[in-house]
Design a protein that fits this description.
The protein is α/β, with parallel strands linked by helices. It contains ten helices and 15 strands. It has helices at residues 3-16, 23-29, 34-46, 68-72, 77-87, 103-112, 129-132, 158-167, 194-203, 242-250, and strands at 20-22, 50-53, 56-59, 96-99, 120-124, 139-143, 147-149, 154-156, 170-175, 179-181, 185-188, 205-211, 223-226, 233-237, 254-258. The strands form four sheets. Strands 6-5-4-9-12-14-15 form a seven-stranded parallel sheet. It has a three-stranded antiparallel sheet with strand order 1-3-2. The protein has a three-stranded antiparallel sheet with strand order 10-11-13, with helices on one face. Helix 10 links the parallel strand 14 and strand 15. Helix 5 packs across helix 6 (103-112). The two termini are 21 Å apart.
Length: 261
């Protein structure tokens, strides 16, 4: 059984057992090493399928698993986590950072919580990210507010965008996108309020840092809200096409690649 099938089976077993299982019960079911099992559980935890409890694990809120945002956490998870580990190295004490509502930046927040940083201010239009820092005193969180887009879990709207552009500024903007064109730039679907808010984040940041796994260069979006020339740093994975890399370097973008090996 390959790892993906095994993780799906773990979810199925949890559902068959009222959402709860002990680690011993799982170990007895799968003929694999404990290290392999723990790796599966850690991935499922990061994807928000499960949470660890005393003596075992249980299913997370079943309704959340069907939201688009939580589905996106399950796509290219390994690449996104490795990219997040590289991105967090760019954050320092006393930074003010804009973070968009993408799944890759959510993994960045997971890594950020592990750091011993002081007085970092996060400005975000995500409904999910603020919850990650509610018990952490080292991080200040500013939510943009506005009309909630329930499909993607982000806020937008002209009034709140005007407040951002006039009043809030940051050292860095960490973002991802639906796709990246080597000819046009950053592309997203038409999501009212979301892309325009991200554009304002980019405008008010000293550095714009794009977190994009290699698959992003194979898909196209609808709206181009940032050109390649406006990206300061791009963090991707080692599977990115060499031709794409050369084009990005010609645009004077600093490239950081997370090694998948």
């Amino acid at each position: 059984m390959n790892p993906q099938d095994r993780r799906e089976k773990i979810i199925a077993l949890l559902r068959e057992n009222n959402g709860k299982l002990s680690l011993k019960e799982l170990s007895n079911y799968f003929n694999i090493s404990k290290s392999a099992l723990y790796k599966d559980l850690e991935i499922l935890k990061k994807q928000r399928f499960i949470r660890k409890v005393y003596g075992g694990l249980e299913l997370s809120d079943i309704n959340k698993q069907f939201h688009n945002f939580y589905r996106s956490l399950q796509i290219n998870t390994k690449q996104k986590i490795l990219i997040a580990k590289e991105a967090v190295k760019l954050i320092n004490d006393n930074d003010t950072i804009f973070i968009d509502g993408s799944s890759t930046t959510f993994f960045l927040c997971e890594e950020l919580k592990k750091q011993n940083l002081k007085n970092v201010t996060i400005i975000t239009n995500s409904i999910f990210i603020p919850q990650e820092f509610i018990l952490n005193e080292n991080f200040n969180v500013i939510c943009t507010g506005g009309m909630l887009n329930k499909d993607v879990g982000t806020f937008g709207g002209d009034l709140w965008e005007n407040l951002i552009i006039r009043n809030l500024h940051g050292n860095k903007f960490f973002f991802s996108s639906y796709g990246i064109s080597k000819d046009i730039g950053v592309l997203d679907p038409f999501i009212p309020g979301d892309t325009s808010m991200k554009k304002h984040f980019a405008h008010n940041s000293q550095k714009r840092i794009c977190l994009a796994d290699s698959s992003k260069f194979l898909v196209k979006g609808t709206i181009n809200w940032l050109s390649l020339e406006e990206i300061d740093i791009l963090i991707s994975d080692s599977l990115i096409d060499e031709d794409v890399l050369q084009i990005l370097k010609l645009k004077n973008i600093k490239i950081i690649l997370a090694n998948l090996k």
